[in-house]
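Exercise 3.2. Students should predict the tertiary structure of the chain below and write it as structure tokens, then compare their answer with the key that follows.

Predict this chain's 3D structure.
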Amino acid sequence: MSGAGQIKSGWTGSNWPLLALPWLLLLAFGFVAAGLRFRLIESTAIADLCGSGQYSPWCNTRQLLILGFQHHAYDVSVYGVAALIAAALALWSKQIWIAWLAAVLGVFALQLYCFEPGALALLIGCLRLLRLQTLSHTPPGEQHRQREQQIQSQP
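Answer key:
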């Protein structure tokens, strides 16, 4: 097919693994954040172990994570502030990795009890990442030009 019937997409051919990598890494970091929340922070076994005075390498990590969401300003935890800063940088910058970082920090903040800033940063990061990926795989002349349109004469 040629002309108006042919639509070139950045997701076809050999480009799709490179384009899918940030999304798969975002999903992996989401699972890591959920694991930290449910296996380390909310686990009664780890809480009992750390509360009994026995030393475990996970106790320090657990304590740092808990301090991160307990210390907040204006009801926004440290994780929410980091996510919002990354989201603001993602809006200002045209770097794909900054948009990805905003999405990852948003997921992390969502999992660690900072819902509103985390959701906003996740939304901004994902939308910005998608937009930057689209722009990076579209030729410069095609960004704002409409597709070739066939105008047929009236019968």
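Discussion points: The two ends are 26 Å apart (CA to CA). Residues 73 and 81 are 9 Å apart (CA to CA).
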